[in-house]
Amino acid sequence: MYLTGMGGVGKSELAVQHAYDHLEHYRGGIVRLDARQGLSAMAAQLVTFFRGHFPAVALPDDTSPTDLPPLCWSQWPASTNPPEPVLLLLDDQRGVAHGYEVERQLFQGLPPRFRRLITQREIAPAGAQVIDLLWLRRDSALELLALQAGERGKGRVEEEESDADELCAEAGDLPLALVLLGARLSGRPDLRLSQLLEDLLAKGAEAKALQQAHPELGAPRGVVEALLISWEPLSDAAKSLGLIIDNYCTHKHAKVKAWLAERPQFHVHFTPSYSSWLNQVERWFGIITERMIRRGSFRSVKELIARIETFVANFNKGSTPFMWTATADSIFEKIQRLCVRISGAGH
Q1: What is d(CA 329, CA 331) in angstroms, rounded to the nearest whole number?
Q2: Burial class (CB in 10 A: 0-12, 13-18, 19+), 168
Q3: Which end of the chain has the smaller Cβ count within 10 Å, N or C?
Q4: 274-279 LR contacts (CB < 8 Å, sep 24+)
């Protein structure tokens, strides 16, 4: 099944809601893969999911992730006969050619228990089941804006009906843009729709420049404008970005120091070398992403932060310290197997 439509129309949200609404049906699992990152990254995401959820099922350690999907499909655990359905959600697939490559390599040997739901902006292949999402009708757009605008959302939209109508038009009647604008209204009960419309129109030139500088984003103007006015009022702390980087004397390099000095919004944390710290950080973020973020739907950054904090608190109640179990001999054996596999590469 394909969900198609322009960016910001709500394809990903609809796909996630479908997954949530049918959790009882997809008892074999729900896997969400970010299709924008390419085939290799998608295979790595799948392998990470498989190893994280089915640790008792061994996958070869000395095999490239791109060669492992067929093993994942064939060894996917089942407790019933016929086996429980599994949903594969491929989010934001780009290009027909990429779709054929994914079909040929990633889904090779895919059993019928696996159901695919693919979101993409391009037209789906001939013969495929398709739900094509268009922009909202104006009455539906106004209703969504009112719903997102807080307790008095409906009253505010009715009081400034003309400005609300223009606001929806400038946003292209796109759900993503309307949700962002509604969140702005919800956070500012004193903000009039006429002022929000004026702010939105003032971002037109900046949005156009951003689209031209980053055409790969493929975001409609209304969505970009809404993002810009949502970003502008954030505090410096909210605009800061934390980076966790594996350290190999990187922080001592003059060019690195100069680059960071010019970008105070970047807060870098260097992990100690040779201690697998970064692997554990990646694993932790993977757990949060797979078990909470990708399974959720959040109406604001504040709600997302609160949900993450709750998840971490509950997770820590049953967590245990990481224990390194690999022996030196087993590590050397893996290295030797790897050297044999790449011996023809000139190493």
Answers
A1: 5
A2: buried
A3: C
A4: 276/324, 277/246, 278/244, 278/245, 278/246
User: Where does a domain end: 132, 155, 182?
Assistant: 132
Reported as a single tens digit per residue, the pLDDT across 16-35 is 888 888 888 998 989 988 88
pLDDT for 166: 92
Q: Among all chains, which residue has been given the structure tokens 């590469």?
A: 345
181 touches 147 (CB < 8 A):
no
In angstroms, the CA 8 to CA 133 distance is: 10
The last residue of one of the domains, among 248, 274, 300, is: 274
Top pLDDT among 197 and 302 is at 197
Residue 115: how many CA atoms within 13 Å on its side-chain side? 18
The tokens describing 55, both together, are 């640790």
Residues 6 and 114 in one domain: yes
Average pLDDT taken over every residue of the chain: 83
* Residue 155 and residue 168 in one domain: yes
- The conformation of residue 275, written as its DSSP 8-state character, comes to S
User: What are the tens digits of pLDDT across the range 295-311?
Assistant: 777 777 788 888 899 98
Domain of 48, CATH number, reads 3.40.50.300
> Which residue range forms the structural domain that includes residue 107?
2-132
Could you give the CA distance from residue 162 to residue 160 in angstroms, rounded to a whole number? 6
Are 171 and 226 within 8 A, CB to CB? yes
Residue 142 located in a structural domain? yes
- Total number of domains constituting the chain: 3
Q: What is the pLDDT of residues 152-192, one digit of tens each?
A: 888 999 999 999 999 999 888 888 888 889 988 988 889 99
Does residue 214 sit in the same domain as residue 257? no
pLDDT greater at residue 85 or residue 318: 85
What gap in Å lies between CA 255 and CA 329, rounded to an integer?
39
